[in-house]
Write a structure and sequence with these properties.
131 residues; alpha/beta; 8 strands; Transcription Regulator spoIIAA; globular; two-stranded parallel sheet
Length: 131
């Protein structure tokens, strides 16, 4: 695990996640194989640290995710509640089939915008920030 720092472009590795700040308030989190009960506490720590450093827009890259359960969804709703008070957002990018199935079952697509690529999510966040 690397040191905590929020310089744009410096990636950080948490167990099962790669964190890459894009701007002072936007961070890409590449989710590994799982976002479920097995790594939920690490994920919550990651989100809390990033939030405390000023991140208000999270782009979650789910391209490699093979397991995504209700505990993972619940943690995102808790973060969403905090972010919405500061006009922040959570976007899903490159969602795997497993993630899409969970999104459909939970209807979380109503809350978390879905993008086919991380780049498309970045463009959308940038557009919202400057509108």
């Amino acid at each position: 695990m690397s040191q905590i720092s929020h310089n744009t472009g410096e990636s950080e590795v948490y167990p099962g996640f790669l964190v890459q700040p894009v701007t002072f308030d936007t961070t890409i989190v590449s989710v590994g194989d799982h976002l479920d009960f097995r790594n939920l506490s690490d994920f919550k720590i990651l989100l809390t640290k990033e939030f405390e450093k000023g991140t208000r827009n999270f782009i979650l890259d789910f391209s490699k995710t093979k397991s995504f359960d209700s505990a993972g969804v619940g943690s995102l709703f808790a973060l969403y509640k905090r972010l919405s008070q500061d006009s922040g957002m959570i976007c899903f990018a490159s969602a795997s089939d497993v993630v899409m199935k969970t999104v459909e079952i939970t209807r979380s697509y109503k809350i978390f915008p879905q993008y086919q690529t991380v780049e498309a999510a970045q463009r959308a966040v940038r557009k919202l920030r400057f509108s």
